[in-house]
Amino acid sequence: MSHHLGQRAVVIGAGIGGFCAAGALSSYFKEIVVLERDAPPPSAIPRAGVPQDRHPHLLLASGLQALGDIFPGFEKDLVDGGAVSINAFRDIRYERADVGALPQRDCGASLLCASRPLIEYVVRRQVAAIANVTLRSHCRVTEIASDAIRPSVRYESAARELAAVEADLVVDASGRGVPTLGLLAALGWERPLETVVGVDISYATALVRPEGTSLDGQILVTLPDPSSSVLSGLTLPIEGGGCFVSLSQYGATKQPETWQDFLALSRQLNTPTIYNAICKLAPPDGLRHFVFDESRWRHFEQLQRLPRGILPMADSLCRFNPIYGQGMSVAARQAKLLHEVLDRVAGEADPIEELQAAFMAEVGSLLQAPWNMGVNADFAYPGTRGQRPERYEESRQFEAALFRAIVSDPVVHRAFSDVLQLIKPFDLLQDTDIRRRIDAHVVVKNA
Length: 447
Ligand SMILES: Cc1cc2nc3c(=O)[nH]c(=O)nc-3n(C[C@H](O)[C@H](O)[C@H](O)COP(=O)(O)OP(=O)(O)OC[C@H]3O[C@@H](n4cnc5c(N)ncnc54)[C@H](O)[C@@H]3O)c2cc1C
Prior knowledge:
The protein has 447 residues and is α/β, with parallel strands linked by helices.
């Protein structure tokens, strides 16, 4: 049975974050209106509002679970759309400079690999099947106005007319939080503090057809020794027999412009695995580039007050370094949290206020582990900008011991896989038995 918390919720942005939020809200509001400046296409093709969608988008096992919880038909639809099933880590060749390739063991987690346009399309179709969710395309939100009782979202419609829609709840999933920040500025309220980590990662991506090669049905990851190289490689099989090959470099440098340049750069990876896998393939239909400047956590959750009924979510709240493949999964997990909180506050006297307070109180701990994992790895690269996390050196030593342990110990490998996939909390690695196994690989340096 549904408990209506209000008449209408408005979601700004029809990306993964916005649509997951709409799915979570659908049982709790009579109507959900999603405002999107783009016109999401009727099939699984790229769109302008998501310029990163021609680059690999890995969906972690926890993201797949969360999407399946919000949209029960999601996994089947993704498989029907051609997603490639991958077992972690049996089908993942994960190469590090310190310990070499990790053993390809079955760690019990399944992934579905697909292009970002297919993932978005499947989510979009799930949302389209929910009767009380409406997508308004070509509607660019210009501001949120708030009279302290109900926010009103102002937007420019497809006909370039100004319009407004009132709501009991507004979810800002616009990617950068601009509407929420604008509202805070208009009210003269405090802006959130931000933690920013500058990485300037340049991506060059090719979509190849790898049939019958080692790229088929497995993921390859080649990481550098960060003290001497900034270049990583990733291959990700997707629907339709395609495979993304991506080369990324910290500290945005010159990008390869041709397939020959791309091949030459891939030879500079720490191992020849990716070069050997792609060197005989037919040249792709062009290369795609993207520069990701910085990870940014806008600490809305730490503000003393937020305007009533406003909820920044997904990238608007925290934008992760994409190299770790966390953004979509964490967005889906936030929507799951939203659903759990909605369920809890449904009977309260002022459920909107309770919802906002409870979500903001709990979302920080959901973001912390993926943020720490990414940022700790980023600071191994000397050019990374920002403040190093506390106890950084200790966490580097722990990481080094962890990977040495993984090579010989399947129990540690499985724990690492669960933590990496965000299935289990980071603290699992501090569990007495796991910690003892990792500590056995700590190398004590002579003073
Ligand atoms: C190069 C790259 C690679 C990535 N790889 C991965 C990966 O491997 N795995 C992973 O999980 N994540 C990855 N990500 C991150 C992932 O794309 C995001 O974290 C994820 O899409 C969640 O985003 P979102 O829904 O919050 O925002 P977005 O996907 O940015 O969606 C925001 C939406 O809001 C709309 N919008 C913006 N402003 C307005 C406005 N004023 N009015 C109306 N609509 C508006 C936009 O058009 C867009 O549709 C990658 C990102 C980049 C840049």
